[in-house]
Design brief:
289 residues; alpha+beta; Immunoglobulin-like; seven-stranded mixed β-sheet; 6 helices; 10 strands; 24% strand
Length: 289
């Protein structure tokens, strides 16, 4: 009886151990079984990409006018020009910057038969205008000036003896009236600008500047280039780059007179005068006449 009881206990214990073992293997299998993958729904829309802000367009560099000297034309006066005021200064007040013509200049070296060399200065510029405008820096105030334009035979084309200088010094433009005969293409003209500080002494030598101007026709390709340029500042740069000095200076000067506070036009003025070595004149104001 005792033997039977022990056998039954051993059988029950073995069954318990076997059952626990099966349960353990079942749990391990469940944990190590790879997860079931599910297919994404076919109607799922792709993720919306954020809209990128377009890049800010970079500003183009401003092309400042720079004068490129052309080849000197035939017919320039053999007399040396004067870009800075010459003559008697005894009757004039002392000034730091003298009377100055806003015109390019070139030195000319001549050799004589005796092998002697002499240097003169050609003060000249080209224009396409029938009646161009001439520009000067005038340091004197409250007095009168004189402007004279002559042809190559020294005949007076225009003369104004009563240009009243205002109370403010600066750069002025002298225009030619419509009653004056137009300049002829290919002809060279001589101009003079004079100031006599002592108006009572007509025999005194005035301070003066002088130079040449020649009217030319535009080349057809240059004319087309100017027609395509819609902005005045682009036209100014084209004139300057092609050696048409008086047209570039006058167009820019008139723009500055109409827009005296425009910093960009002031920078253009500085660039244009700097290209003919007149940096010191660029700082002076333009005086409307």
């Amino acid at each position: 009886m005792k033997l039977l009881s022990k056998s039954i206990k051993w059988i029950l214990a073995s069954a318990l151990v076997f059952t626990s073992t099966l349960q353990y293997f079942a749990e391990v299998t469940a944990q190590t079984k790879p997860p079931t993958t599910t297919k994404p729904p076919t109607n799922t829309k792709p993720p919306v990409q954020p809209i990128k802000k377009p890049p800010t367009p970079t500003k183009k560099a401003v092309s400042r006018p720079v004068f490129v000297p052309p080849k000197p034309p035939a017919g320039l006066s053999t007399v040396s020009g004067r870009r800075r005021g010459m003559g008697s200064r005894n009757d004039c007040p002392a000034v730091e910057t003298p009377l100055t013509a806003l015109v390019p200049f070139q030195e000319r070296v001549a050799t004589s038969k005796q092998t002697n060399t002499s240097t003169s200065v050609d003060v000249w510029g080209l224009t396409t205008s029938e009646r161009p405008m001439f520009w000067f820096y005038v340091p004197y105030t409250n007095m009168s000036a004189e402007f004279v334009l002559q042809d190559s035979s020294e005949n007076e084309i225009y003369k104004n003896q009563n240009i009243a200088l205002k109370a403010k010094s600066g750069v002025i433009g002298i225009s030619i009236p419509s009653t004056v005969i137009p300049l002829q293409v290919g002809k060279t003209y001589r101009w003079f600008f004079k100031i006599r500080c002592n108006q009572q002494q007509t025999t005194s030598v005035p301070i003066y500047v002088e130079g040449d101007i020649q009217r030319v026709n535009l080349h057809p390709s240059l004319k087309q280039q100017l027609q395509r340029a819609t902005e005045p500042r682009k036209k100014i740069a084209i004139y300057a780059a092609n050696g048409i000095w008086f047209d570039a200076l006058t167009m820019l000067g008139q723009l500055r007179l109409a827009n005296s506070n425009d910093a960009s036009l002031a920078a253009d003025w500085q660039s244009l005068l700097q290209s003919i070595n007149l940096d010191n004149i660029a700082e002076f104001p333009l005086v409307n006449y």
